[in-house]
Write a structure and sequence with these properties.
Blueprint (H helix, E strand, L loop, with lengths): L6 H18 L9 E4 L7 H7 L5 E5 L2 H4 L3 H10 L5 E3 L8 H14 L3 E6 L1 H15 L10 E2 L9 E5 L11 E6 L4 E6 L7 E4 L9 H20 L5 H23 L4 H21 L3 H13 L3 H16 L4 H10 L9 H18 L15 H12 L11 H11 L5
Parallel strand pairs: 1-9, 2-3, 2-4, 4-6, 5-8, 6-9
Antiparallel strand pairs: 7-8
Bound molecules: fe (ii) ion.
Length: 411
C-alpha cells in the first residue's frame, strides 16, 4: 500500500508515463552514434573530421589525459590531417554552468566547427551542452533544461569515453549543476546524441580502480533501472540484459587489473549498451536520489548510485521481483526454477557482494545532513515523478527512508 502517495497522483503519473511511452515515444527518433571499436582507435577522430570536411575542432578534455600521455597521439593525428584544433580543459568533476560558459565565447571567436569530447561522463556532458548552447545561440543553460528544448543540433560531436560507466556517448542526456542553487538536472534531447562514439579499451588502462568501480556500478545501475522500468522496448530490453551480463562477467576483473584489455573491451561496450538502454527506457529512483545528493554534496555520481542501488531495489518490493529474478537467472546465480522472490533477493544480494568486492561501502559515511533531507527528497521527487516509469511509485516518506538506510547518520 502506498504510505504517503495520493492514489490520484499515482494514476496521474502512470497516465503521463503511458502517454509518453506508448503514444509519444514511438514517434521520436532516438539516433545512435556511429561506433568505432578497437585498441588505440581514439586517434581516428582526426580521420573522421578530415573526411567530413571539418577543419577546426575543439577538444573538450579531462586535464589528466595530458598528464598520462593520451593527448599527444590525438593532437599529432589532428596536426597530420592539417586540422587547427584547440583544447578546453575547464571541466569540473561534477560539472556546473562554470564548466560550460567560458568555452562558449572562445569557441565563437575561434570559429570552431566540431567538438571532440575526450574524457569521462562529465567531459562528454559538458561538450554536449557547449554544442547545444552554440547551435542554439544561447548562454542561458537553464533554458535547455528538461525535454526537447534543443532546437538545433550541433554539426559534429565525437565522443571518446575514457571510463566505462556513464554511457553518455550513447545518450540523449547531459547532466549539469546550477551553481546558484546546487540543483543537478538533465537536458534531454535526441539532438544531443553524439555523431560518433569511439570505444577504445586502452583508455581504461590508466584508470584508478576506485573509478573503475564507481563508473562500472553506474553502468550496472543504468542497465538495471532501464530493465525493471515499464518502458522497455524490444531493443532496450536486449541492450539492458546484454549489459548486465557483460558487467557481471567483467567489472570485477577490470577492477582487479585495469590492464586486462579483454575485460576493458567488454566493459566499455557494456557501458555503451547500458546507455542505449536507459536513454530510451529511462532510469529510476536510484538516479533521482543520487543526482540530488550529487548536486548538494559533490559526491561522485557512480559512487552515489552504487551505495543507493540495493536500498532502492528493496524498497520496490514485490513490484520489481519478477524482473530482478530474470536478472539473477540471466547471470546464473540461481537455479532457473528458483522461486521469483528468492531469485530477486539473490540479485540484490549479488549487488551487495559486488560492492563489497569493489571496495564500495554499504553506507555513506556522514554524508547526508538531517536538515537537508526534505529538500533532497523534494529534488528527487521532482526529477522522477511523473516521468520515470519505475516499478513502484514511491512517496516522500519512502524516499526519506531510503536516504536514512543509506546513511544512518541522518536518521
Ligand atoms: Fe548514471
Amino acid at each position: 500500500m502506498l504510505k504517503d502517495m495520493n492514489i490520484f497522483k499515482v494514476a496521474w503519473y502512470r497516465t503521463t508515463q503511458f502517454v509518453m511511452n506508448k503514444i509519444g515515444m514511438p514517434f521520436i527518433k532516438f539516433p545512435e552514434p556511429k561506433t568505432l571499436k578497437g585498441p588505440a582507435f581514439y586517434v581516428r577522430a582526426a580521420e573522421i573530421l578530415a573526411e567530413n570536411g571539418y577543419k577546426k575542432p575543439l577538444i573538450v578534455a579531462d586535464p589528466i589525459l595530458e598528464q598520462i600521455g593520451k593527448m599527444g597521439p590525438l593532437t599529432d593525428q589532428l596536426e597530420q590531417k592539417g586540422l587547427k584544433y584547440s583544447i578546453y580543459y575547464g571541466v569540473e568533476p561534477n560539472p556546473t554552468f562554470n564548466s560550460v560558459l567560458p568555452a562558449i565565447d572562445a569557441v565563437k571567436e575561434n570559429g570552431t566547427d566540431s567538438i571532440i569530447a575526450f574524457g569521462g561522463g562529465s567531459a562528454i556532458d559538458v561538450a554536449k551542452i557547449i554544442g547545444a548552447c552554440i547551435s542554439n545561440d544561447t548562454k542561458d543553460i537553464s533554458s535547455l533544461k528538461g525535454l526537447f528544448k534543443v532546437k538545433k543540433k550541433y554539426p559534429c560531436l565525437i565522443a571518446i569515453p575514457t571510463t566505462a560507466g556513464t554511457g553518455s556517448e550513447a545518450t540523449v542526456a547531459a547532466v549539469i549543476i546550477d551553481p546558484a542553487t546546487r540543483s543537478k538536472y538533465a537536458i534531454n534531447d535526441p539532438k544531443l546524441v553524439p555523431d560518433y562514439a569511439i570505444l577504445d579499451e586502452t583508455l581504461l588502462e590508466t584508470l584508478p580502480p576506485k573509478m573503475i568501480a564507481a563508473t562500472g556500478m553506474d553502468a550496472l545501475t543504468h542497465a538495471v533501472e532501464a530493465y525493471i522500468g515499464n518502458a522497455l522496448t524490444r531493443k532496450t530490453k536486449k541492450c539492458a540484459l546484454y549489459a548486465v551480463n557483460i558487467i557481471y562477467h567483467n567489472l570485477l576483473g577490470l577492477y582487479q587489473d585495469p590492464h586486462n584489455l579483454a575485460a576493458g573491451k567488454n566493459m566499455i561496450f557494456g557501458s555503451y549498451l547500458a546507455g542505449v538502454a536507459f536513454t530510451r527506457s529511462y532510469v529510476g529512483y536510484v538516479h533521482a536520489l543520487a543526482h540530488a545528493i550529487g548536486g548538494k554534496y559533490n559526491v561522485p555520481h557512480g559512487f552515489a548510485n552504487a551505495v543507493l542501488l540495493p536500498y532502492v531495489l528493496e524498497a520496490y518490493g514485490k513490484k520489481a521481483h519478477k524482473k530482478l529474478a530474470d536478472l539473477a537467472k540471466l547471470i546464473e546465480i540461481v537455479h532457473p526454477e528458483s522461486k521469483t522472490d528468492k531469485a530477486a533477493q539473490a540479485f540484490i544480494d549479488y549487488i551487495k557482494m559486488l560492492k563489497f568486492s569493489l571496495g564500495i561501502p554499504a553506507h555513506f559515511d556522514n554524508l547526508i545532513k538531517k536538515e537537508d533531507l526534505d529538500d533532497l527528497v523534494k529534488a528527487a521527487l521532482h526529477e522522477a515523478n511523473p516521468l520515470y516509469p519505475v516499478p513502484k511509485i514511491l512517496g516522500a516518506e519512502e524516499l526519506k527512508a531510503i536516504y536514512m538506510e543509506a546513511d544512518p547518520s541522518c536518521k
